[in-house]
UniProtKB/TrEMBL annotation:
This is Peptidoglycan-binding protein. Residues 1-23 form the signal peptide. Belongs to the YkuD family. Keywords: Cell shape, Cell wall biogenesis/degradation, Peptidoglycan synthesis, Signal, Transferase. InterPro entries: LD-transpeptidase_YkuD-like (IPR052905), LD_TPept_cat_dom (IPR005490), LD_TPept_scaffold_dom (IPR045380), Peptidoglycan-bd-like (IPR002477), PGBD-like_sf (IPR036365), PGBDSf (IPR036366), Transpep_catalytic_dom (IPR038063). GO terms for molecular function: carboxypeptidase activity; transferase activity. Pathway: Cell wall biogenesis; peptidoglycan biosynthesis. The active site is at H440, C459. One of its GO terms (biological process) is regulation of cell shape. Residues 306-483 form the L,D-TPase catalytic domain. Pfam families: PG_binding_1, Scaffold, YkuD.
Length: 548
């Protein structure tokens, strides 16, 4: 009976309105919709519950003579997948309710309600995707999307019409994905977690440092957790449980080391607070982190030619040339109180044996308090006092009344001379930007041995700075004899690169590596935190795993 009413309603619409969809395929041009079209959309809204872009929808469906346009199930899957991922990321309440309503309408059997709402949601996705370059650094790093997205442009609506005219909505929706295979691989990881979410995930709560040979209060919980995380085979887990192993044995230690490696932790096999924290991280939270980082992919560059990438929470730098990874290196980034910003710049020159002009914040907070304790601190560390930022006149330290100087009233600037103990080391890589952030060498090499390396005041310290300088200058055509001379001489030397290198700092706390292993990292700047809301972690991502 319900089907009969739906069929009657559909036939009545077709009887009252002309069928001209295929006649218009060659001349796709959006026009102002008629009042009848507006009324038709309002009726669809009454069935679906809500639509946002009434004028655009009326124009689209009038163009298609009020026929359905979502014929291809793959197009439906692709649309719902992308909206589900945004929903799972926890950045937009609008996409959260759209994800739920799309699923409900798809199984309802009401073609008009689903079709119109799907198109409305595609318009929202188009608008969202076009707004990411402007607002993504706010949306994906702490600020929720609170406003309704503006209507797409006329060009975007025309492109949608053309795609629908050719029954190519799947390809059109797919084109809105980030242009990187990471999106598909991370979606697979979410699907795997969703499949596992029905299984028992115990929490390992034993306190204190647990080392090889230590007694385990609840060995089964640890074994099951390691199995669920994919670092211990099911067979090995069953064998350990059957033996009733009551201590932390070598098999478990090796599994924990694999787990630590995939989470950027110190790979020592010791279960401490950080390892325990990640072992007990909920599946829902992991899904949210993956989805959020999938959306961040929309921000980052996809090209791999003459580009230097620094992933802040991974404390790593990569240099790419002609789609080949030329160099990777550990880095030290800004501490949480002095964050390395997300920025884009061009590396235009390398400075050998640089001076360090001490930033005001560091001068006031770090150096001047030490001078008040030790009057010889400046000379011991090769600092020169200069009259101002615009004047390089040298001020003798003994001419300053240090009794009256405070960090806030010090009128001069400080400059550190080149040398083995210069804070910038032997190399500085200039990346002009509004934050005065650059890459450089460092005399504090020991920090690169740490798993967590957020220690700087914002600039990026490069472990392989000498190799980076050599590669950059070699690719820029500098003779190696000149390079050796600049490196060995104590004088400061600026070398301009013939071809600049694009530099991007990014922030990915989850990704899939080249071996297909899911990687998670500590959220060092607390950017992953989201308001607690009820988000359905089971939203289907079927389409995401079907095409690269």
């Amino acid at each position: 009976m319900v089907f009969a009413r739906m069929l009657f309603k559909t036939l009545l619409v077709f009887a009252l309105l002309p069928l001209s969809v295929w006649a218009n395929v060659g001349n796709v041009e959006p026009n102002k919709p008629s009042e009848n079209a507006i009324t038709w959309i309002q009726q669809a809204e009454a069935e679906s519950g809500v639509v946002t872009y009434t004028q655009d929808l009326a124009m689209i469906y009038e163009y298609f003579s009020f026929s359905p346009i979502w014929h291809d199930y793959r197009a439906k899957d692709e649309l719902e997948t992308q909206i589900n991922i945004i929903s799972l990321a926890g950045i937009s309440q609008e996409f959260e309710w759209r994800a739920v309503l799309l699923r409900e309408l798809r199984v309802s059997g009401d073609w008009r309600a689903y079709d119109v709402f799907a198109t409305d949601s595609l318009l929202a996705l188009i608008s969202y995707n076009s707004q990411v370059p402007l607002h993504g650094k706010s949306w994906f790093f702490g600020t929720d999307i609170n406003d309704t997205f503006p209507a797409p442009t006329k060009t975007q609506t025309t492109n949608l019409l053309m795609a629908a005219s050719r029954n190519a909505l799947y390809d059109y929706a797919f084109s809105l994905r980030p242009e990187t295979p990471q999106y598909r691989e991370m979606a697979k990881a979410i699907v795997a977690l969703q499949d596992e979410n029905t299984s028992y995930w115990p929490k390992f709560t034993q306190r204190g440092l647990i080392k090889h040979g230590n007694k385990l209060v609840d060995s089964d919980s640890l074994i099951t957790s390691l199995e669920r995380h994919g670092v211990l085979s099911t067979e090995e887990a069953q064998r350990l449980k059957l033996k009733h192993v009551g201590f932390y044995n070598a098999v478990m230690v090796q599994a924990v080391k694999r787990f630590q490696q995939s989470h950027g932790l110190k790979t020592d096999g010791v279960i401490g607070n950080k390892t325990r924290y990640w072992l007990n991280k909920s599946v829902d939270n992991r899904i949210q982190i993956l989805a959020l980082n999938m959306e961040r992919l929309r921000l980052w560059p996809t090209g791999r030619d003459r580009i230097l990438l620094v992933n802040i929470p991974n404390y790593e730098m990569e240099l790419w040339m002609d789609k080949q990874l030329i160099l990777d290196s550990k880095v030290v980034v800004g501490r949480p109180s002095r964050r390395t910003p997300l920025f884009t710049s061009r590396l235009d020159s390398v400075v050998f044996n640089p001076h360090w002009n001490v930033p005001v914040t560091i001068m006031r907070k770090d150096i001047l308090p030490k001078v008040s304790v030790d009057n010889d601190y400046l000379s011991k560390h090769s600092y020169t006092v200069l009259s101002s930022w615009s004047n390089g006149e040298v001020i003798p330290p003994d001419s300053i009344d240090w009794e009256t100087v405070t960090p806030n009233n010090f009128p001069y600037r400080l400059q550190q001379s080149p040398g083995n103990f210069n804070a910038l080391g032997r190399y500085k890589f200039n990346t002009p930007n509004g934050n005065a952030i650059y890459l450089h060498d460092t005399p504090a090499k020991g920090l690169f041995n740490r798993a967590s390396r957020a220690f700087s005041s914002g600039c990026i310290r490069v472990q392989k700075a000498e190799v980076l300088a050599e590669v950059l200058l070699d690719k820029s055509g500098l003779e190696m004899g000149d390079y050796d001379y600049y490196r060995k001489t104590p004088k400061t030397k600026w070398v301009t690169l013939r071809k600049k290198i694009s530099v991007h700092t990014i922030y990915q706390t989850a990704w899939v590596n080249e071996d297909g292993e899911v990687q998670f990292r500590d959220d060092v700047y607390d950017y992953d935190a989201r308001p607690k809301r009820t988000i359905d972690p089971s939203a289907s991502l079927t389409a995401s795993t079907n095409q690269s």
